[in-house]
Amino acid sequence: MADAKLNVWIVDDDESVRDSLRLMLEASGYAVCKFKSAEDFLDSGFGVNSFCLILDIRLPGMSGFNLQEHLLRSQNKIPVIFITGHDRDRMEEEAMSLGAIAYLRKPFDEQHLLEAIRLVERGA
Prior knowledge:
Layout: E1 7-11, H1 15-27, E2 31-35, H2 38-43, E3 50-56, H3 64-73, E4 80-84, H4 91-97, E5 102-105, H5 110-121
Parallel strand pairs: 1-2, 1-3, 3-4, 4-5
């Protein structure tokens, strides 16, 4: 089981997705913070104890890709797992070029998400 001190941040505009991911991740031993927008995430002071970010690509306001670009420009290298329910051509390629640990299409298997988080734990 994961160390409870590892904070997983979730940014998704769908409350049901945020809630289900929170329940699953907390049951797996992670501490979870959830946000409905990229702007809320940035306003949170997320930098303290950051471990991993699960980031929806399509968000109101700043997109997940725009948030990742912002983080990279500010030298914040929090590992990102992109999730999306709106897959399009080359989107996965774009996510990986932005340094994503994984790219998961909704609905995804919980095990695939946990495997991606374990990659972060191992320093991949």
